[in-house]
């Protein structure tokens, strides 16, 4: 019985030793790696840059009053379409008391003079008809009568302008009516009925009654980093993407690049403007945030591979060309590269179309090993 147990334990020990060696041997075997296989193709490479900014009207016209006073009526609101000459608001004049008193006094003096000349005119007319006075004397009286009549009318108009800002024969041209100066859309009406407003003069910009703009003439206004601004030039096309309008790209042409940069968050930025073509079925609101995609350079029908397949060693580029499928075997090969768009890169020499090259690693496989119990 003792002999049996001795043999049993010797066999168990031998199995443990053998299993340990087997486990260590399998663990020391090289790791098997699998890679994606990419094909060399012919394609296009386009290098773009993106500028952020907003879309706004080319010109926003500030409508100012031609006289000071209080807003009596507002006829338009933001979003309304207007034509040049349309009335936006009406101003009630608050006259200066000194000027008003002077105008009233002038009317009274003109009225007294006119009443007196009217009596003289009627008397001289009767005498002239009776041939008591000469025609020359009558014409002098008639001329004076007409002058005083015109002076009375002028004084009354002056009083009306001082008190009400309007004269009877020029009501359509009254400065109390604030009119649009262009055809367009009202963007903003910052005043309300009862607000005091002042006219524009040499010492004051005046109160803005409304802002009007042509919404069919829009600009993309954005900024570009100094590292890329040197590659763009006036006349370059670009695609405008507006965040608030999905699945729509608008074409634009670069019109302006600022000659002077400004520092923002440690970077030098240059302002740029591009004329946006707005389709008739697209409505754009002023101030929409937008991105402009600008094509800096483009190559068509060139040999390309994914840039991730390239291995760099200093100024030299290499790829691994597939030689055997199973097991995967690759040969390191030097290539000459060209332009890259960040995803694809141009191959100028070293590869030909339909060559197979090593891509990204997709699987790391080790032989399964069971530890002995």
Task: Please describe what this structure looks like.
- With 373 residues, this protein is an alpha+beta fold.
- The protein has 4 domains: 32-46 and 300-365, Beta Barrel (conserved putative lor/sdh protein from methanococcus maripaludis s2 fold); 49-57 and 215-297, Beta Barrel (Elongation Factor Tu (Ef-tu), domain 3), CATH 2.40.30; 66-92 and 175-210, OB fold (Dihydrolipoamide Acetyltransferase, E2P); 97-164, Helix hairpin bin (Helix Hairpins, Orthogonal Bundle), CATH 1.10.287.470.
- The protein is built from 4 helices and 21 strands.
- It has helices at 2-27, 97-129, 135-164, 226-229; strands at residues 32-39, 41-57, 60-63, 69-74, 81-82, 87-92, 177-179, 184-188, 196-197, 210-213, 218-225, 237-242, 249-257, 262-264, 267-276, 288-306, 311-313, 316-324, 329-340, 344-349, 356-365.
- A hairpin with a 2-residue loop joins strand 14 (262-264) and strand 15 (267-276).
- The longest helix is centred in the first third of the chain and has 33 residues, at 97-129.
Task: Sum up the structure in keywords.
Elongation Factor Tu (Ef-tu), domain 3, disordered C terminus, single chain, OB fold (Dihydrolipoamide Acetyltransferase, E2P)
| End-to-end separation | 26 Å
Strand content: 35-45%
Low-confidence spans: 369-373
CATH H-tier superfamily of the largest domain: Efflux pump adaptor protein, beta barrel domain
Shape: rod-shaped
Radius of gyration over C-alpha positions, nearest whole angstrom? 45 Å
CATH topology of the largest domain: Elongation Factor Tu (Ef-tu), domain 3
- Architecture (CATH level 2) name of the largest domain: Beta Barrel
Average per-residue pLDDT, rounded, comes to: 83
Q: Please, how many domains?
A: 4
Number of continuous helical runs:
4
Task: Write the H/E string, N to C.
Answer: HEEEEEEHHEEEEEHEEEEEEEEEE
Question: What is the highest CATH level, the class of the largest domain?
Answer: Mainly Beta
Order of strands in the sheet with most strands: 2-11-15-13-12-16
Q: Report helical residue fraction.
A: 10-25%
Number of strands: 21
Return the structural class: alpha+beta
Biggest sheet, open or closed, and with what strands and sense? Answer: 6 strands, antiparallel, barrel
């Amino acid at each position: 019985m003792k002999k049996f147990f001795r043999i049993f334990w010797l066999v168990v020990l031998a199995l443990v030793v053998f299993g340990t060696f087997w486990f260590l041997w399998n663990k020391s075997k090289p790791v098997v790696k699998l890679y994606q296989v990419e094909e060399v193709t012919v394609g296009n490479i386009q290098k773009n840059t993106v500028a952020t900014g907003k879309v706004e009207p080319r010109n926003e016209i500030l409508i100012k009053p031609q006289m000071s006073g209080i807003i009596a009526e507002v006829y338009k609101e933001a979003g309304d379409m207007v034509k040049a000459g349309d009335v936006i608001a009406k101003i009630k004049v608050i006259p200066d008391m000194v000027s008003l008193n002077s105008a009233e006094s002038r009317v009274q003096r003109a009225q007294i003079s006119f009443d007196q000349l009217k009596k003289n005119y009627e008397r001289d007319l009767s005498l002239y008809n009776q041939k008591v006075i000469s025609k020359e004397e009558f014409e002098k009286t008639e001329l004076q009568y007409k002058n005083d009549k015109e002076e009375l009318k002028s004084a009354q108009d002056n009083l009306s302008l001082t008190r009400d800002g309007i004269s009877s024969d020029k009501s359509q041209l009254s400065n109390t009516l604030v009119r649009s100066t262009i055809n367009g859309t009202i963007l903003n009406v910052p005043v309300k009925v009862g607000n005091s407003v002042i006219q524009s003069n040499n010492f004051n910009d005046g109160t803005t009654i409304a802002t009007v703009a042509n919404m069919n003439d829009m600009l993309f206004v954005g900024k570009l980093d100094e590292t890329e601004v040197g590659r763009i030039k006036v006349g370059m096309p670009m695609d405008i993407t507006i965040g608030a309008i999905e699945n729509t790209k608008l074409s634009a042409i670069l019109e302006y690049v600022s000659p002077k940069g400004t520092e923002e968050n440690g970077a030098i930025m240059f302002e740029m403007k591009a004329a946006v073509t707005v389709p008739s079925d697209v409505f754009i609101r002023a101030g929409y945030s937008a991105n402009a995609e600008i094509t800096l350079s483009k190559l068509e029908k060139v040999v390309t591979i994914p840039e991730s397949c390239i291995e760099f060693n200093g100024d030299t580029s290499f790829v691994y060309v597939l030689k055997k499928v199973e097991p995967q075997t690759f040969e390191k090969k030097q290539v000459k590269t060209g332009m890259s768009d960040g995803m694809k890169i141009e191959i100028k020499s070293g590869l030909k179309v339909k060559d197979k090259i090593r891509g990204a690693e997709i699987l790391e496989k080790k032989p399964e090993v069971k530890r002995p119990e």
